[in-house]
Amino acid sequence: MDPSKTLAEQLGYPADAKLLIIHADDLGVGHSKNAASISAWEQNGINSASIMVPTPWFPEIAHYASKNPEFDLGLHLTLTSEWMYYKWDGVLPSNEISTLLTDKNYFYPTVDEVVANADPAEIENEIRAQVERAYQFGLNPTHLDSHMGTLFSHPDLFEAYLRVGQEYKLPVLVPDNWIEEAMFSDIEARNEIIELAEEYPLHVQEVVMLDSTTHESDWFEKYDSEIKNLKPGLNEILLHPAYDDAEMNAMTINYHHNFGAEWRQRDFNYFTSQRVKDLLEEENIKLVTWREIKELMYPD
Predict the structure, then answer these.
(1) By the 8 A CB rule, do 168 and 131 touch?
(2) Structural domain spans, the chain
(3) Tens digit of each residue's pLDDT (9 = 90 or more) over 203-243
(4) Is 115:153 a contact under the CB 8 Å cutoff?
(5) Which is nearest to 144 in space by CA: 46, 51, 24?
(6) Which cofactors does the annotated protein need, by name (predicted)?
(7) Closest by alpha carbon to 238, among 167, 148, 158?
(8) pLDDT for residue 257
(9) Whether residue 184 has pLDDT greater than 90
(10) H-type helices in 168-260, by residue range?
């Protein structure tokens, strides 16, 4: 990448262009999730996504990806298993990642439990194994990011994340607003993460994700507002499209306002609508992909 030029200029746009990746998280977690995300991509509702390699429906989305290599797919590096009854563990054997697992041999449900219990060396081994598993299934990932932000939660984990991205020549999501706004009890750890982030050559300045603070009746209007208020530079909207069906309701039985089936269906409905396509054009938003960024960062 050329530090004398903005990312927009390097991608062929005006220096002050508003760049946006419309990105679907959690592919591989379930069939409903895969089907809705594929449909959203085929309708040009999303232009990027990332896959959870350890989850049960990973083979389905890996097969689709092998048939559709133009789909901009990265890896949603996964170290938690948050649902009440629907669980998974790691790619590596349990005896090699014992500090990452509960007494029932599943990943911990929360980020705090991972940070409190996991050996950073085992975490690095596991995320590297997830990348290797993706290649084993024929994927050619375009980037890395972190499920539930686990890898942004401690300096040792963040450093491992950056190191694995560099090793495999994959850009990684470094979300400026999330890192700056994160609530850390350890100020020294927070400052260390910020310092590590500052050294990375690519930043997503604003990552947008709706949560329970937005009422369901205001969902479309809130997304409209977020798009209208995007600033020049690289931005990403993280959505979680899935269908409000029996499978997704069973999987997310303990989640309603955040990340539940209705929540995911609303994301699908908005981003597959003509409304958002018209708004992006009106606001002169330039859609870009992680693949384009990867080609700039690692031209070989």
Answers:
(1) yes
(2) 18-297
(3) 999 999 998 889 999 999 999 999 999 999 999 999 999 99
(4) yes
(5) 51
(6) Mg(2+)
(7) 148
(8) 67
(9) no
(10) 176-181, 187-199, 219-228, 246-251
